[in-house]
Every structure is written in structure tokens, then in C-alpha cells.
Amino acid sequence: MTDPKNVLHLDHLTMQFGGVVAVNDLTMDINEGEIVALIGPNGAGKTTAFNAVTGIYAPTNGEISFHGTPIVRNHPCGKMRKLYAGTNADLYKDRVLRPTPDQITRLGIARTFQNIRLFSGMTVFENVLTARHLRRTSNFITAGLHLNGKEEALMRERSLALLDTVGLADVRDEMAVSLPYGRQRLLEIIRALATDPTLLLLDEPAAGMNPQETMELGQFIRQIKKDFNLTVFIIEHHMDLVMNISDRIYVIEFGRQIAEGTPAQVQNDPAVIAAYLGGDAE
Amino acid sequence: MSALIVFAFYAAVFIAEQKLPPTSMLFTVLKKGAVYALVAVSMNLLNGFTGIFSLGQAGFMLVGAYTYAILTIPVAARASVYQYFNGGMIQFTVPFVVALLLAGCAAAVFAWLIGLPVLRLKSDYLAIATLGFAEITRAIFQWNQLGPLTNGSNMLRLFPIFNDFNIKDASGTVAVYLSTMMPMLIAGLCIALLVLLINSTYGRALRAIKDNEIAAEAMGINLASHKQLAFCVSSFFTGIAGAMLAMYQTSVQAKSFTSAMTYEILLIVVIGGVGSVTGSCLSSFLFVACSEWWLRFLDEKQFINGFEVPLLRNGFRLVVFSIIIMIVVLFFRRGIMGTKELPDLFKRRRAKEATPHD
Questions:
Q1: What's the complex ipTM?
Q2: Any residues with CB less than 8 A from the CB of B223 and at least 6 apart, and which?
Q3: Any A CB within 8 A of B223 CB
Q4: pLDDT-derived band of residue A280, with 50, 70 and 90 as boundaries?
Q5: Is A133 part of the contact surface with chain B (CB cutoff 8 Å)?
Q6: CB A138 to CB B201 under 8 A?
Q7: What is the 3-state secondary structure (H, E, C) of B201-253?
Q8: pLDDT tens-digit profile of A88-127?
Q9: Cross-chain CB nearest to B220 (options A120, A144, A195)
């Protein structure tokens, strides 16, 4: 991409499982400092799109660029060549790029999960500390012999500072899974921040939260966006939260984009209303 | 506090070794227990901390034991050891410490090669694949074509053993007994290194993989390289333990490294607590003591006031032993120690002492 402010660019992304096209020809842009939401009815392919960005799935066709550099690229091959039901199959014949999730996280894309995935056998503090592992400069011998004292101290200091920002520092020695649900969500976000991301992907961060907690979460997301110079890409079902915090919204249904724009534009889009309330979209 | 306990234990072993007759069963138990403790802790690194269920321990011990034995048999003794293979193909020896390290390295190299295809598998499949590797290794080391190197299915012997650690004076009598102390020190040093690794940032990454692979990967932990690392480090120390087992047994034969040996180690890990180094150490000494020493009397006819105690005959020991293991597994579901370590025991006691005053 030529736009220097562009952080994430999805180019004709298609994700097909067997005969099912979960994400169909999705093209979207996320620019620096934005909070962009991806919404849609259940089963629309939101999380699948997330998983393609974070490397858990390799897309069937399409390209993903991060800060202007292509990081994921694939075209239908093997059995999929015959099965492929999407479009633009010939656009991405260049070198296939299929990084693993850890390589993508190393580039600066961190995520949380729809169903909380904390490290269950660890304390709150260790959960965050583990996320600093990828920015290590020690190898297993220097670390194994504890010769990296300075680095270890920095890791601990940084993790503690992060926990402090959300008031989890006083429970840092509790087991992570013993926290109440809302705080587990916060911890997961903090753990993602500990990997030093520039782009944060939140998969339904308000799921299971009450309205009060949801409102606080909205403020919290704004706060960390400012404090950590983040760009945020969010999937959410709580419409008040989405409308409140997002700069732009993409709406998908059956894997296909049906609308894009500011919250006000999207709210009045007939196609979106039809998708959510049922009925014909003209 | 923990350091004090460990130090006191070593001091007690040292004093006991000078005072008690060297034939005492206590020393047999301590020597074999030290070897098993090292294997159990390195198996725990895989099973308890990384969540890789590997059953290849006997194979890696075999590699370690053979590497050590082949490299340390004195050149003069080779003709008699390799009597069917014209003295064998290797005609040099390396110092004891080098041989021990090379034993570990050889096992680690094997582990790396096997890990490439096998670590893609999960849980039971991985266990079966590693078990298969151990069986294949055992067969290959007995292969007659490799005789000049491995002595085929014949024994390797006459290499330095634990008794050679004893310091003798000019007249040939033993001045300082070290034949139990040295293996305990070697095992202790290796276990200390493993504990350091477990408590480092790499140890945390391994535990993260065990807890949640998907989250660990999303946090930037490369699954393949970290699993491979755990597998190789574990095998390195298993190889060293294999070399120590060779020293303990005074001879090596491939056919004794059966899968039953792996199951013994697995049993020790489970009884001690999956994910506890302290538990593995404790239970390996208890296990060896029970199987070699404390229950021996059950195998012989006993008379109390001329009355013959029923049931006691050869093999009854194993029946009682199995029952004890079942009781332990039933009442200590998570092992003797659970996931606790030695320092945790004092932490909790201190916390308990502190609460009434609050």
C-alpha cells in the first residue's frame, strides 16, 4: 500500500473450509490510530477473518499486509484448486507467505480470544511475564543459567507496571483462573499488550460482561489506545460499545462485506438493518 | 531453608558412607535412586512442564549408557570385552567427564533427529511414536553388524564404575569413600541445572505451552522450537543418567533397557507428582528403596516362634508392591507433592503462622 498511515490491509481475503466459504472476498483497511470494528450476525465469519490475520488459519486466497509489507499471501492450490468457490483466484500467484502465529505476534499484532485462553496453571503475574518471552535477547543457555538477570528484572518490572495500569497488581500472585470473569478479560488484554504490539485485535472483549463493565471496558480500550499508541481492531456484539468507541465499522454477513463506514452511516444502512432484523434489503 | 535441607542430606550421606560398611543396602538404594531421580526429573520436564507425553526414556538412556561405555573402556581391556570383534573399532579412551557429557550430547542428537517428525504428534500418538523409537534403538544396538562398535548383543564392561570414585591410599585400602557421594553430586548438579531452566523465562514458556498451546503461540512462543528444546534438554540429561546407570550396573547390555524401565520412571513421576521436581526426587528414592530393600523380606520364608508366616515366598514382594502403588495412586491422586516444590512447603507454613496474628 502507498498510504503510510495504513496499518493493516486485507486484500480480497477468502477463506474456504471444504465447500463452505466462511470469508468471501473481504477487502478492508485499518489506519494508524483508528479503532475499527468488524460486526455481523453470528456465523458471519468475523472470528475466521481474525484467525486468518493472526496466522491460525492460512487464507485460501488473498493477501494481508501489515504496515505496507505483505505478511500473508496464498492462492488456491492442491485439492482447493478444483473446490475453490471464490473469486480472484489468479491474483496472488507470487510467493506463498504462511507465517505461524508466533511470527505474526513478533511483528507486532497481538490478540485476545473470544473464549478466554489464559495460562491456567500460572499466576496473574506469570501470565503477563510469559508474554514478554518473545522480546527476549537471551538464549536458553544464558537464560537457563540465569545469566540474564538484567533482562529478567526488566521483564518483571514491565509486567508489573502493566498490571498496575488495570489495578491487577494486588492480585498478582493469585491463580489467573481464580479471578472473576471481567478481570480475566482485562488480564487477557494486558497479556496481549505485554508483547509490545502496534495493532491489537480484540475478539468479543465484552462477551459475558454486564452493562457497567461494558462501559468501563470502552473507556479502557480508548485509554490503552492512547497510552500505547495502538491501532485497535475489534469484533463485538454489544452494539452500544461498538457505536461508542469505533471510528469506522465493517459489517459482514455470510462472509461477505455488506457495509462500511462511520457508526452513523452504518446504523442507517438498509442492508445492515436487513441483516440484523431480517427481511429484504431491497 | 530448602538449601539447608539439601545440604544436610548430602552431609548425612557423606558421613554415613564413611561409617557404615560399603555393602549396606542403603548405598545401593542411594546410588540407583540418584540415577532414577535424574531420569524422573528430566521426564518431568517433558511430561509435567511442557505437556509432551514421551515414553522414549529407556532409548535415550541406552544411547547414553553405550556412548559412555564405548568411550571409556581402557584400551588394554578392549581385546577381552570385544572378544568376538577383534577388539572393536575404537582404540582410544576419553576422560570420564568428557564421556559423561558426550553421552548426554549423543542422546540429545538422537532426540533432535527423532523430534523433527515426532513432535508434530500430540498426546497418545507421541507416546506411541517415542516408545517405538526406544524399541527400535534397542534392536539396532544389538545388531551384529554394528558389533565392532556396540559389541553386538554381548555385554560392555570393565569401564570406570562408581567404586572407582573411592580415594585409596598408597597401600590400596580406601581412605575416603565417595562411590555414593559422586553419583549423588552429579545427579544433584544436573537436577539443579534443570530447576534453573524451569524457573527461567524458557521454563515459563514451556509451562505456557502445556497450559494452552493456542494462547502460547498467539503470545509469540514458537511451539516447534520450544518443544524441540525441551525434548533435547530432557534427553541430554536422560543420556547422562544412562551413563550413570551403566556405572551403577558395572556392565551394559542393550536388552536390559526395556520399555518396562520407562514405565518404572513414569510410575515414579506420577507418584511424585506430575510437575514437581521435588516429588520426582523423593519418589525415586522411595521407589528404589521399596523395590530393592524394604520389601525384600517378603520374598523369603519367615518364621516367628517356629511358626511359618503364610504367603511369604518368592515373588510375593511384587504383589505387596503393586498394592502399595495402588493405595498411593488412590489416596494421593496428584502424587506425593502435587505440583508443589520444596520451598513451597515452608512458604505455606510461614503463611499459616502469620495468619493468627493478623
A1: 0.89
A2: A100, A102, B209, B213, B216, B217
A3: yes
A4: low
A5: yes
A6: yes
A7: HHHHHHHHHHHCHHHHHHCCCCHHHHHHHHHHHHHHHHHHHHHHHHHHHCEEC
A8: 777 888 888 889 999 999 999 999 998 899 999 899 999 9
A9: A195
